[in-house]
Design goal:
This protein is mainly alpha-helical. It is built from 14 helices and 3 strands. It has helices spanning 2-10, 16-33, 44-57, 60-79, 106-114, 121-135, 140-145, 174-185, 213-226, 235-248, 253-260, 265-271, 276-286, 288-297; strands at residues 151-152, 157-161, 167-171.
Length: 298
Amino acid sequence: MDGFLDELRLLYGRSDSTVDSYFQDLNSVSRVVADAKAVIDLDEGDLREVISLYSIDHAPSSVARMQVTLRAFFQFLIHEGYRTSSPMEKIENVRTPATLPEVLSIQDVVRLLEACDLGTSVGVRDRLILEFMYGSGLRVSEVIASRVDDIDFEQRVIRVIGKGGRTRVVPLASSTHSLLGRYLLEGVRSSFLIGKIRREEVFLSTRGRVVSRQYVWQLVVKYGKIAGIESSLHPHTLRHSCATHMLNAGADIRTIQVLLGHVSISTTQIYTHVTPEHLLEVYRTSHPRALVCSERHL
């Protein structure tokens, strides 16, 4: 199991959170089979029973993720010579309902950003974190891993290392670029540095450490409450809102794919959607029958 996790991290460049998810999945399987068998020795019948038992207390999405983990693990065992075939070959994937994450209105995004107190160093930093996620569509992991040297102020872009260690260059919004200058050049970030410790990352905590994923999650929820936004918020809401607002404004899906760092455009097609309001607006201004009806009313 350790070799498998090391391969995910070192060879395939999986993030720590992804590797931890695989570890937790394999541990869950170990707990289900208890002392009956080692995971490495499970056959198809064993795995069907494990998946069935696991499905009782877990959502389909969790079961599907565990199946992905098992498929990858048994392929690793084959490559390493521990097994000759995978017991997962004939087991069908659990179907998960297609769901779209919530998207904020442009007005709600403005209220969220303006909830940060720019009169304090923490408020400036937090506003900039939100700007990175909405203005450039960055993932949480990409935000906290952002380094000062990756920023090109002249070109107004930042180099981002995304999933699988893939690098892309992402433009910075004008509001992000302006606030970034204040954060880096006017002593805001340096106020978080402690002693002689130096950090490469852009976003630091008040203790001089790199901000955590948990902190970013908490600040999104915190400022959402201050802004009076009733819908449940999480960091991915801002990334999805960025993509949706660009799509509604006329950006092509290929551009959005590159911006978000999706390997497959099918991921972007699922990830972005047209809001009902935008659909009605486009329909009423472009469909021949809608135009005829409008002229008759005039």
